[in-house]
Structure prediction request, 597 residues.
Amino acid sequence: MKTLLQGRNKFLSAILALVMAATLLGATAFTGLGSAAFAAWPSFQDDNTNNGVITVQPPITTPATQASVGLLTNNPGSVVYSGIDTTSVLNTSSSGVTTAYTLYNGGVYDAATGLGGARVAVTNLSTGSVNSVLLDAQASNDNQLSVPYYNAANDTLYAAIQWSSDAWVTPAISGWTPSATGVTISGSTATFTGNGSISASVTLTNPVNYLYLPTNFNGTTGTYTIAIDGTTLASGSLSEYGTYDEYTGPEIAAGTHTLTITVTGATSAAPATVSQVTFTRYDWRLYSVSAVTTAPVVKLLVGDSTGSNPLYEGQPNTPISYDSAGNIYWGIYGGTHSYYQYNVTNATLVSFKPTTSLASGYDDFYYAGAADVTVSGTEYVVFGSDSGTVYVRPVINFDTGTGNTITLVDSVNVPGEIRSTVVLAGANVYFTSKGATDGLLWGIAVTDLLRISTTSNDAVVKASETSTSTPVVSESGYIYVGANQLFSSGSVQAFDLTLANLAPVYSGDPVQASPIVYTDEATGDDYIYFTTNADHSQDTPPVTNHNGYCYSYLPGAATGTLVWNPSLGGTYALQGFAADNGYLVYGDDGNNLYIFH
Prediction:
């Protein structure tokens, strides 16, 4: 299951003027991490501005070349519903060879064959030949959501990966203690026919700040609560498909605890059953792969091999971004609740851990990549969070220096979580927030990043849809952003620079991906490329041309126009396209990489 987005429509407040230069600001100059040898798309949405503008013309008609490359996996011939969840990063050498680097989940690791684990595919886009590099065997069938960064100057890839371990798994339910009424235990299954509870002792070897709590609850009526020592970890409505909860509250100490599961509202006609509960802990690691194109050498830069160090707990779910001073950045969901800066030259790691009014007392970071921005001659990185807060942190003294905190305010909608990367385009930064019911698109002038504590300058993306899509600002001065309603529907919307909703570009399947755009100077058309997080392979008859799209939009038109979409098969495509040297690529959950030229 993938996290998704929503939206609606409102005009920009006059409090903060959004003034856009006629020519968009290009990639910020940088020295510490080097530029590409010839051309590159080295990080999420191209560079450290995160604005996915394509400068070398990609296919604006049906591509002459369409190819599907299956990446190496321990599940050959089967669909891995967590295969490629990141966009690729690309580089074109001085000889004109374009290579894609793709972080993916290779399935359950098999020591005998060396297959599975967290891997990087190195794909020659002209020949389709692939080399698969194993990063981490312990990341066995773990989702990988952090887009890596490629430094072409030294042919080195930097990747943050997650791996999971079971902090605790239920012993036989027969060893649990049931309440006096409402529940019976037979064999390894507890059956609730009324209001009741079961409890057992839980021993945690290490303290945990974040838990994934899957159960095989089966029931259609009633609610449940999972508590430890009387503190609620999770609660919700029973489902015939099981429950999948997360806990990100205060740290649970190592030692022995009492776990209690309570069910309310089950009946003898609609009973609920459970036979397994698992506490899963996530940890992160940072790797480098040097000589990645020729003779890859994998090195663990930061992390703990045992999963016992709380300094490396949590999920690295943001793309890796970079600045001009030789630093890379990524955020953690759960665990340490921190945003990290790592200097690739000095091998130094520092972190910024904000406190909030959230239940955990800390903030979290999911999809929320950072933009490199200069304000009044000083370099900062800007990123959002799950509390709906924008953090402006100095590059020098990232952890302790003076920055700013911007709390989003909207007079109609609850802003919700910022699960979008911040984009720098001209004189402004842009991003989306999920919203309680409608996704919101935000714009803040760079000159105001250090001066305001709150802002209400936003526009609703689309009614009854949410958004975790990073916006893209085209050379023609239009903003494109995706939205979705769970797994049922979605859209791509066009805005002008006043954040007025001008037109629907696309309506159909959920769009969680971040669009990228090419502007045809001859015609004035914007070509928008995006993917959808849907699977129609089981439809009758099966639909195979639904994952990737190219739409054109002529600024001022009533709607967008479909130009082409692949005739290739595919499944859920969480992340979007990457582009370089006339190539387009994206991946899907089946570990397929699609190439267009």
Summary: Residues 1-37 have pLDDT under 50 and may be disordered.
